[in-house]
Design brief:
The protein has about 270 residues and is α/β, with parallel strands linked by helices. The chain has a single domain, classed as Vaccinia Virus protein VP39 (Rossmann fold, 3-Layer(aba) Sandwich), CATH 3.40.50. Helices cover about 45% and strands about 20% of the residues. The chain is built from 9 helices and 7 strands, in the order αααβαβαββαβαβααβ. The chain has a 7-stranded mixed beta sheet with strand order 3-2-1-4-5-7-6, with helices on both faces. α4 links the parallel β1 and β2. α2 crosses α3, α3 runs parallel beside α4 and α8 packs antiparallel against α9. The longest helix has 24 residues. The radius of gyration is 18 Å and the shape is globular. The N and C termini lie far apart (about 40 Å).
Length: about 270
């Protein structure tokens, strides 16, 4: 299934009705288990810097929901928010300016071509690396962009059922993915040679999280890709299913998953 057309529908809605964007962000934070994990780790890392003002790169900012969260919750900070999709970046610029959020700078940039030198204390990269074939170039660019002792948070599908691939015969549920996902070992084998060390690695979307993803995300996405009429039915679908989805996500969130279809990996730059 191609995921981008569905995402573009949501992007067009919040572009036409910008007052819905904050509500949209809140819904993403609530319905996507990965957001639970990412926001928790962001707050943990922020505490390590104390009251120091930090510089953050949101590498592949998408709708801008994590940029919005960081701008509000990781203060004091300044954020560089980049994505390759020009229309999404332009929409974010307008929204953030209208809401008087001035500690964020948006620009259209390709992670394969960024050229920063020891500029950021923290780099966040959520559900991006699975779309990029030449990941080593991106990892090297991240290393160069980080200040010494800076942190890189990557959230992505894992090889253990990520992209809904469970055997060699399965095809990725998301047509835009360049790879199934990553393991802790693959991250370490690719990041450590540049000078990164592993700070923390957690598998997400274990048994219960995977079931929640299917009920709360996969099945609605399939319906929406089939017909936009299902946008009308979505509220009724979630009214019936979300109590069960929420409980399953919570169980996953407080569990120590040995494996899972997602991985949240944090590396630190050492020199």
């Amino acid at each position: 299934m191609k995921y981008d057309p569905v995402k573009n529908v949501f992007a067009s809605i919040i572009k036409k009705l910008p007052f819905l964007r904050i509500i949209f962000y809140k819904l993403l934070d609530l319905f996507f288990l990965r957001s639970w994990y990412v926001r928790r780790e962001l707050k943990k890392i922020r505490k390590l810097f104390g009251h120091k003002k930090i510089s953050i790169l949101d590498a592949g900012s998408g709708f801008g929901q994590y940029t919005y969260f960081m701008a509000k919750k990781l203060q004091p900070c300044e954020i560089k928010s980049i994505d390759i999709k020009k229309d999404w970046i332009e929409n974010c610029k307008i929204f953030f300016a209208n809401n008087k959020i001035f500690n964020v700078d948006f620009s259209v940039e390709d992670l394969l071509k960024i050229n920063y030198s020891e500029k950021f204390d923290l780099i966040l990269c959520v559900d991006v690396m699975e779309h990029i074939q030449d990941d080593l170039t991106v990892f090297e660019n991240f290393y160069k962009a980080l200040k010494p002792d800076g942190y890189l948070i990557i959230n992505t599908p894992s090889i253990y059922g990520g992209s809904d691939v469970h055997s060699d015969d399965d095809e990725s549920f998301i047509g835009e993915h360049a790879r199934i996902g990553y393991s802790k070992e693959e991250f370490e084998s690719k990041l450590h040679p540049f000078g990164f060390v592993t700070f923390q690695s957690k598998y997400t979307y274990g048994f219960w999280g995977d079931k929640a993803w299917r009920l709360g995300i996969k099945y609605p996405m399939i319906m929406l890709s089939f017909s936009k009429v299902f946008f009308i039915l979505l509220p009724f679908y979630y009214l019936l299913t979300f109590p069960f989805t929420f409980l399953m996500m919570y169980i996953d969130f407080v569990s120590n998953n040995k494996i899972g279809s997602g991985i949240n990996f944090i590396a630190q730059k050492k020199v």
